[in-house]
Amino acid sequence: MSGETIYKGNKKILGLTTLSFFLTFVVWFNMAPFTSTIKEALNLSKEEIGVLMSINIALTIPARIIIGMLVDRFGPRKVYSSLLIVMSIPCFIFAFGTSFMQLFIARAFLGIIGAGFVIGIRMVSEWFPAKQVGLAEGIYGGWGNFGSAAAAFTLPTIALFIGGENGWRYAIALSGLLCLIYGFVYYRSVQDTPSGKVYERPKRNGAMEVTSYKSMAGLIFMTLPLYGILGLLTWKLSNTSLINSSLANTIYVILAVIYLYNVYKIWNVNKEHLKEGVDKKEQYSFRQVAILDFAYLITFGSELAVVSMLPMFFEETFELNIAQAGMVAASFAFMNLVARPGGGWLSDKFGRKKTLMILLLCLSVAYMGMSQINSSWPLVLAIILTMTCSFFVQAGEGSVFAMVPLVKKRLTGQVAGMVGAYGNVGGVLFLTVLSFVNPSLFFMTIGVAALLCFIASLFLKEPDTAEHSSIVVQDKAGKEAAM
């Protein structure tokens, strides 16, 4: 059976899965266009609105880890369909909520839908050969990510069309309804792998498999920031009137206990096979995962942070009105449509390590350049530099996920989950930095972090695409054969 035959139908799967991701981002960001409307309609304080915006990403971090494990175990078809269907429930609750607490609970659970990205990474990697997976993952990530911009453009229009004081509620509910319907459509329209290809599953469940004691220590260490960032969010909320110190301390203790339990699971899952010794062909370097974590923290993390602050930055620096500043910020997100697939294509064409290194170095220089922007600059030059920086950031994201599926096939969901979670960690971390420094130092901090990541990327190993292009199929006797 030829590789061309095995992968027949891959464009259909890419399109259907990208639409799934697109809808998750529409729902995940369906509050953003109506922030001021919701604040006024429910008489919420500025602090309460801030909490709703923060909690929207809090559970996404652990959810990406958990969803990564589920997709490796049960397959992307079941997990993506279930996520779309189940997450429509908190979307409806949020749409028709009448109190802050109802909105808070709904928004917290809606953060889980942001983990949908991880599922598609595994699905797309199953349907495309290694030499094409970078471009395919880039299209999936870039066009799916556009769902956040689509929500900003379409939902207010729908609300105006419906009219009345509850127009915003029906617009948000409509996004949930689309999610619900498409969950069933997706389940009936896709399969986890091409016909005849075996879906490789982890040999053990509950934590990521590693292949050396050194890697296990690395996994334990790299898991700590995922809980630390939730502690940081708790600390930020404790500085408001919404969480008192007693509740904050309780949350810290809970996070510490969960982390220690996670450490136990890592040990329990890996102790036996590490003691027996891991066959060389089964080994992989966790260092690859750690460096990709750092790279996505820089790329996607900085994108999250910059998109949040860019309108105000241009508004204050160049005395633009809100609409003009918003257009500049939106253009940063629009670049995803081209840049992220471009980063994946460059990785397929010229090598994954080399491409990622060049993009990290370029975005480091670009962010350092942005740190020098002030009111004396021509506006056009500032926008050109911002767009250039945006291209390197999002191409870098595409380059990261051109490599993720090639670390270890049967662990792709978990690797993608961890790398994706670090992207959210970066967003929270950089926004926290911004709360203490001016925009110039904020951009410089990201630039220096990107330079450090460039140095770390020197220790990446170029994936063997020939090794990952072998396809396991079942012959007529039911025996496995590699092609």
From TrEMBL:
Record key words, sorted: Cell membrane, Membrane, Nitrate assimilation, Transmembrane, Transmembrane helix, Transport
Mode of membrane association: Multi-pass membrane protein
UniProt-recorded Gene Ontology molecular function terms: nitrate transmembrane transporter activity; nitrite transmembrane transporter activity
Cell compartments where the protein resides: Cell membrane
Ranges in coiled-coil conformation: none
UniProt similarity note: Belongs to the major facilitator superfamily. Nitrate/nitrite porter (TC 2.A.1.8) family.
Name of the protein this chain belongs to: Nitrate/nitrite transporter
Organism lineage: Bacteria, Bacillati, Bacillota, Bacilli, Bacillales
